[in-house]
Amino acid sequence: MLDNSLMAKLSDFGLATLCDEEDPFMTIEAKGSRVYMAPEYSMGKAINIVKADVYSFGVVLLEIVSGTEIVSETVSEEYTPTQEVEFLLDKVSGSDRINPLSFFFL
Predict the structure, then answer these.
(1) Distance CA 60, CA 24 (A)
(2) Does the keyword Glycosyltransferase apply (predicted)?
(3) Beta bridge partners of 86
């Protein structure tokens, strides 16, 4: 998905393409923005890469629908990735917090 300036707003996180079809579970060093990582990935556990991409995409969709960037709101070493997402869910709970324009862009 691109904005008016042709800047990417949504794209494939790409980890699923690195996945071995016969063994979709792998352990790799965690890299990237902590908040977008599946909790298992950020803890260095073996994860299903496809499911990790789905988790990351879900966080991005939550940001779009809420109109809130989770990274700027909650980045802190004291928060786990799951707590950061829960913080955003609490913040946007209720229909008055949903950005109605976000559905236009989906």
Answers:
(1) 23
(2) no
(3) none
